[in-house]
Amino acid sequence: MNRFEIVAREDYSDVTFMLEVLHPMMARAANPGQFVIVMSHAEGERIPLTIADFDRAKGTITLVIQAVGKSTMEMQATCHVGGVLHGLAGPMGIPSHLSDARKAICVGGGLGVAPVFPQARAFKQNEAYVIGVLGFRNKDLIFWEDKFRSICDELIICTDDGSAGIKGFVTDGIDLALKHHQDIDEVIAIGPPMMMKASADATRAAGIKTMVSLNPIMVDGTGMCGGCRVKVGEEVRFACVDGPDFDGHAVDFDDLMVRLRRYREEERIATERWSETCRMRATAVEPIEMPDIG
């Protein structure tokens, strides 16, 4: 059996954590924008996760995960340094196209901050002027600020409550960047669907190329199941083999958000069942030793 060893872990909040996994072959093959299919154990669900970073010299890939459902909550509880992932397939998807943009805005919202990092770094390595716009609910949820400052020419932090950076959403950061830079060639936006939709709307009037990374429900990751189909313009595309990057101005985000809610009830039941099992294990009563009365 393959052993995909977890060599580093860092927790960024109560629900967000990072795993660094040893996989030299994948680290050599990975490119910005690609994803992997992960199984934490033999009976686990196959879940798609965007590659947040890769280090060819160390032979590692980095995954940033949000524990929001049964499988990711299980990974948060069981995946630790020295442990292994049962399955790790990839890299999958079409790598992000590195355009000849001379000035780009890279936008990340919440968990989307992680997968937009390798794209921002690729732009910088291509000698572009890079403006990072990162959005979080509050200052306690901020992560990777130092990593972005190391590769961005400008960095705009946005928080919903104003506890760090500017008060507002990533669209406020985009507006601020566009106000000071009339020569933006391209915008990359990764995050929740509503955030990506708002980011595309913010650039639509100016006609600025805006790419987004879609996260529909995915099963096999090879285009066979059709579960990850999305509407882009007049076409139906499959995020796993045609994406995950698409023209944000052409994506039907309303359809995407409806599809993402399709199995919400099943997800709720699975999470509750797993949580209840964990509580039962934690509160199991030890056998009582009977006194020796012989």
Task: Break the fold down into its secondary structure elements and pairings.
Blueprint: E1 4-11, E2 16-22, H1 24-29, E3 35-39, E4 47-50, E5 53-55, E6 60-66, H2 70-78, E7 84-85, E8 87-92, E9 103-109, H3 113-125, E10 129-136, H4 145-149, E11 154-159, E12 166-167, H5 170-180, E13 186-190, H6 193-204, E14 209-213, E15 229-232, E16 235-238, H7 239-242, E17 245-247, H8 253-260, H9 264-282
Parallel strand pairs: 9-10, 9-13, 10-11, 11-12, 13-14
Antiparallel strand pairs: 1-2, 1-7, 2-6, 3-4, 3-8, 5-6, 14-17, 15-16
Helix pairs in contact: 2-9, 5-6
Could you name the key traits of this structure?
294 residues, alpha/beta, Elongation Factor Tu (Ef-tu), domain 3, Rossmann fold, 2 domains, seven-stranded mixed beta sheet, five-stranded antiparallel beta sheet, 9 helices, 17 strands
Shape: globular
What is the share of helical residues?
Answer: 25-40%
Sketch the topology as an H/E string, one letter per element.
Answer: EEHEEEEHEEEHEHEEHEHEEEHEHH
Q: What do we call the CATH homologous superfamily of the largest domain?
A: Nucleotide-binding domain of ferredoxin-NADP reductase (FNR) module
Order of strands side by side in the largest beta sheet? 12-11-10-9-13-14-17
CATH class bucket of the largest domain: Alpha Beta
Number of helices: 9
Strand content: 25-35%
Largest sheet geometry = 7 strands, mixed
CATH-scheme architecture of the largest domain: 3-Layer(aba) Sandwich
Which runs of at least 5 residues are low in confidence (pLDDT < 50)? 290-294
Instruction: Tell me the CATH topology of the largest domain.
Output: Rossmann fold
